[in-house]
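Internal tracking record. Fields below are filled automatically when a chain is submitted to the structure queue. Please do not edit lines marked as system-generated. If the sequence contains nonstandard residues, flag them in the REMARKS field before resubmitting.
Queue: standard
Priority: normal
Entity type: single polypeptide chain
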Amino acid sequence: MARGVGPARGEDDTELRGYWDGLSGSGTVSVPLEKQMWGDVFGVCTDSFGITWMVDISERQA
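SYSTEM-GENERATED OUTPUT FOLLOWS
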């Protein structure tokens, strides 16, 4: 069975953290969702269906 990678990115911290909580809660985390050296909050998890998700929360632009 083919597995994919789902990107989720944007500036809405609350919405994207909600996605992260739902996806990672029943799956496995390979990169914790935390602030990275380039400035974004980023994490990678695999959900219970085997889909890998990359969540990238960027800072709101003024």
